[in-house]
Each structure stands twice: as C-alpha cells, then as structure tokens.
Amino acid sequence: MQKFTQLTGIAAPLDLINIDTDMIIPKQFLKTIHRTGLGKNLFDEMRYDDNGQPIADFVLNKEPYTAAQILVAGDNFGCGSSREHAPWALLDFGIRCVIAPSFADIFYNNCFKNGILPIKLPRETVDQLMEKAERGGNAMFTIDLENQDVVDPDGNKHAFEVDEFRRHCLLNGLDDIALTLQKDEKITSYEGKRADEAPWVALQQG
Amino acid sequence: MGSPRTLFDKIWDSHVVDVQEDGTCLLYIDRHMVHEVTSPQAFEGLRNAGRPVRRTGQTLAVADHNVPTEGRDKGIADEESRTQVETLAANCAEFGVPYLEMNDIRQGIVHIVGPEQGFTLPGMTIVCGDSHTATHGAFGSLAFGIGTSEVEHVLATQTLLQKPAKNMRITVEGPLRPGLTAKDLTLAIIGKIGTAGGTGYVIEYAGEAIMALSMEGRMTVCNMAIEGGARAGLIAPDQTTFDYVKGRPMAPEGADWDKAVEYWSSLPSDEGAAYDVEIKLHTDEIAPQVTWGTSPEDVIAVTENVPNPADINDKNKAAAVQRALDYMGLTAGQPMTDVKIDTVFIGSCTNGRIEDLREVAAIAKGRKVAEGVRTLIVPGSGLVKRQAEEEGLDKIFKEAGFDWREPGCSMCLAMNADKLAPGERCASTSNRNFEGRQGRGGRTHLVSPGMAAAAAIKGHLADVREFL
C-alpha cells in the first residue's frame, strides 16, 4: 500500500449529502477483475451524459478540479454497498483524501486499506472548507497526517482525529495481512480452544 | 458473575483472538461467504503473495450478482459478467474453496444460500464482501459486510482487525396486523433513525413485533440494518431460530446439536445490559411503507403525500429532497397512490425468500397484472424456486401475468441483463433506491412484496390493505 504522510493539492467541492458508493462507481464498472483503471468512471452518471460526453458543470470536469487530489463533501459520504471499487476509483482518479462531516463505516474502513485518508471534521468546518475549495487552483490544501491537521488556503489549521493504529499503517504503508500473519500462533491456539467449546464451528476443509 | 452483557458483547467477547494496545482487536471469523464481484482482486492478492486460504471449510462461494435470470442453458451472454463468474470458479478450484456453480439447485443469492444450507448459525461471526451480510444477524450472529482488502485478509488469516461497535437497541412493540410486514418495519425504522442513524453501532432488534416474525421476516429486518448505517443487525436466537436451523445440511447434529442449542440459548442479552442508544416504535404508528426519494430514509406511509422541500429547515436536507424529487419526477404534495409505475421487481436478498413469494401469490391469485406493466419475480435461490413450484405459486404468478425467473440478484442492482431504462419507474422489493441503482436514470420505490404485487395489479403504487 502507498504511504500517506503529507499531501498538498487541489480540493474539489462536492456539496451533497449521502453520496453513496453507487454514485461513486456505478455497478456496470464492477465487472472488472482488476483494481486499476476505474478513475475514468468515477462518479460516472453525474460526470457524463447519456452519450458519454462530459457534463460541463460537474466539478471534476472543470479546471482545475480535473487534477483534484482532495474531495470535500457532505454528511454520510460513501454509504451503501461495500464495494472497494469506490476507493479504487477515487485513487485511480488521483484523490487521496476525502473530507466530510461523517462517513459510512465500510467505506471509511476501505479507504485506509488503499492509502486514502478520510477526514471527519465538524460540519461548520467542512462548510468553510467547501467555500474555500470553490476558489480552485488558487486554493491549495495541505493535509498533514503526522501532525493530524488540514491547512486551508488561508493558512488556518484544522486538527482532526484518526485511529492510532490506522494512522500508523498509513504513515508506513503497512500491509496488515503480513502483520496479522505474525500472530499465527495466537490464531491457531484460539482455533484449538474453540474446537473444544464449539465443535460445530470448524467444518471439514474442502 | 461479570456485568450484564448484550448479545453483541457476548458474540464479540467469544471471538477475540488478540487485543492491541490501542484497543484494536483481532477478531476470529467463523464463516466467510464469497461472491464473484468483490473477490477476484482478493484471490489475486493471495496468489501474488503466495498465501493459501486458511480455512477453506469455513468459506463458501457462489455467483449471484452477474447471473442471468433466463436462458441459463445458453450461459452468460455478457463477456465481462461471464469472465467474472468464470474467474470465481477458477479461483475456488485453485484455492480449494467450496463453490456452488450456476446450475446447482442450491445456487442463489449468497445471503439466502448461507441460511438455507445451515452455513449460517447463531453466535457466529460471519462476513462477506457485500454490505447485505447484515442479513445473517437474524440468527443472532454478528454478520457484516467488508471490502475486498478485508476479504483477502479473512481468506489468508480467518480473522479481521476490528474495534468493537456501540450497542443500539430498537424495540418494536405491538402486533403485526394484516398488510404490515417485516419490510414495513425495517423501512419505518430507517425513516425514523435516518440512513446514517446507525453508523458506528450494531443494532439489536427486539420487542413483540420483531420476535413474532418468522426467520424469513427477521432476515428482511436485519438485511436493511446497513440502510440505517449500521454494519450489522442482530436478533436474539430463540426456538424460531433453532427450528429453522435444525436439519439443514451444514447444521450440527446429535450431541453437537444439543450442545449448540444450549450455547445459543445463553446468547440473548442479559437483564440490565446497557445500550448506548435505545429507540422504541409501536406498530400502531406504522402503515405499509413506500419510498419517494433516492435514499432509503426517504420513506413514508403509502397513504401519505410526496413531501415538500419548502417545509424543511436544514438547507442541505432541503436541497437533497429537491434533487430527489427532480430525479424521481415527482411533485411535492402528490399522493403516493397516484404514482404510475412501469415495472415491478420482486426478489433480492431482502425479499426473495419463500414467505415473500407466498405474500405475492396471495395478492396475485385470481387477478391480472395491469396492461403495460413489466414484472419480474426472481426467487432468491434454486431451492426457493423449487419450493415455490411445489406449492404451485409459479402457476398463480404466470396466470396473473408475472414473469417467473431463475435465481440471482437481478434487478436489485442490475449487474446482469435485468435493468430499468432511463425514466422508468419501478416498485421494487429490494433495498436501495439510489440514483441509477436499478439502471441509469431508473426510478425506484422500495416496498414490501405484497405492496409490489398490489402495484403490479393496479398499475400505480397502491395500499396492499385494499386487497386483503
């Protein structure tokens, strides 16, 4: 996984609540067996018309937001389906950070597995950042995971909270499967204990 | 004796393998269900790292999202869909994961297959790369959806890194009256708590109306916990649960069965257990529900009118309502029962079980689908289809003019050939009315199976109670 330490980039404002993962990446693009290549279809139904032409006033079709690396959005971002294609599509487009007042649990979790930092900030702060993001290329945001703050284009710092273990994994780009496999003995010992207590759990290996 | 614990606390405590300093737990996963859409990249990850699947016997795979619901003998026409299903079969063969292939009688929607096979049991941790894994919580098991990276993590380690959720209890008191179903309860709950109301929580559903439900109804309720923002829903296991599980192909037998029932009987929340949030509803306040907008929280009684954004104070909410009305092609103040429909979809992991089909048949019997309305009835599994046919339900459907199909996810998310055209309006027994969910530009009204059947017959949204 790609590390996330510090990021300075353009923030795109997407002032909608309840942006669901069907909006982020519609189902017709879930047929891929790869993780990459989904960026062109990010927000597909909002971004392109029925003939596949870009819709001029959708934020990610406008300069300079075609190069956005940060997204500022409304409450409950990423609700709905568990599809990890949603963070994959954001990442493939170039977005490495999403700022919103709240996130749906599964999406929030999926971001950390892909080197994307989801940042929860109070609604009033997100409203301010949304306005500042409207200034486009003249308004760069800096996200600092080490210091846990967002520096807005006017130089104001907004501190954010993030789970310590997730922060550690992002800062170091750690693969958590490798970490868990170091605990193999503990897992095996648990399975042994469980086999006595609840013998119906461990079905025969196929 | 320790302090009183909730059902969630008990399941959680019995699955913790390890606790890190910051409180993150390594949680053991008892059952892992796999489907074709969210697994290829996970198997690829295993292959690249040279890792095996740790517990193949505790894993079960089935293709459901991409499978056609007609002409199955001809295979899958769409090349990408076919590739995805073939990739699942090849991955299962390579890694030794049990796989139910498309023409197996047991094939169906993963969340219907698990319970039918007795793969889903009380007191377990169950995951799947699918948000509607919440369905299995009906058995009193902690079941939740995960992303593909976590699918890979479970395949490799049979565990997940998790922090405990908070406890929410939603109690629905009062009896279920005719026309009022599990779907109406779960929609009314989402209407009350909102689509993010359960974020960070596991919801335990309780009360007279919930405990009176069959297992099918309980699965419908838990299925949509995710639409209320909760990753998991739970219902305490009881005799109804044990009766459903007993004798299923993968359920315990003999002495193991007795031991299991004794253990499962100890799982219901202790007297005095603390919940972070308590919500109460009464069936007196719940009429058959229908959604008008593009979020499951946009739900009202069928007897009500389309809401007016001008009546809403929160500017973000008002903007969202206006956007939803524009998308749905509805006018504020319009009675819901005036809304004409083009399509009716009956099926999905929410309402694709035998009881749902019986509900439809009770309304359809001796009646006809309205002129010009397209209808699809898609059973949740091959076994549901067979049972429906044994009961003669298929004949009732066909005589009424309904289209009777092969099992799968179908038009719930329209990854296969079953989809809405732009502007088409559908009364659907599925779980999501998001923009474009059932096809680009398609308009979805979520309802119970009986309400969907009533809409098919009338040609517009209708109150099922008129048919009873």
Strand order of the largest sheet of chain B: 5-4-3-6-7
Mean pLDDT of chain B: 97
Which bin fits the share of residues in helices of chain A? 25-40%
CATH architecture of the largest domain in chain B: 2-Layer Sandwich
| Tally of contiguous helical segments of chain B | 16
| Structural domain tally of chain A | 2
The helix/strand class of chain B is alpha/beta
Estimated radius of gyration of chain A: 20 Å
Distance between the termini of chain B: 51 Å
Q: How many E strands of chain B?
A: 19
CATH class categorisation of the largest domain in chain B: Alpha Beta
Could you list the spans of chain A in which at least 5 consecutive residues all have pLDDT below 50?
Answer: none
3D structure, described in words:
The complex is a heterodimer of chains A (206) and B (468). With 206 residues, chain A is of the alpha/beta class. Helices cover 32% and strands 16% of the residues of chain A. Chain A is built from 8 helices and 7 strands. The two termini of chain A are 31 Å apart. The mean pLDDT of chain A is 96. By secondary structure, chain B is α/β, with parallel strands linked by helices. Chain B folds into 3 domains: 7-165 and 238-264, Aconitase, domain 3, CATH 3.30.499; 167-228 and 272-285, Aconitase, Domain 2 (3-Layer(aba) Sandwich); 289-467, Aconitase, domain 3 (2-Layer Sandwich). In chain B, helix 2 (40-49) packs across helix 5 (148-157), helix 13 (354-364) crosses helix 15 and helix 13 (354-364) packs parallel to helix 16. The longest helix of chain B has 17 residues, at 79-95. Chain B is globular, with a radius of gyration of 21 Å. Chain B starts with 6 loop residues before the first helix and ends in a 10-residue tail after the last helix. The chains are: A alpha/beta (206), B alpha/beta (468). Chains A and B meet through helix 4, helix 7 and helix 8 of A and helix 2, helix 3, helix 5, helix 10 and helix 11 of B.
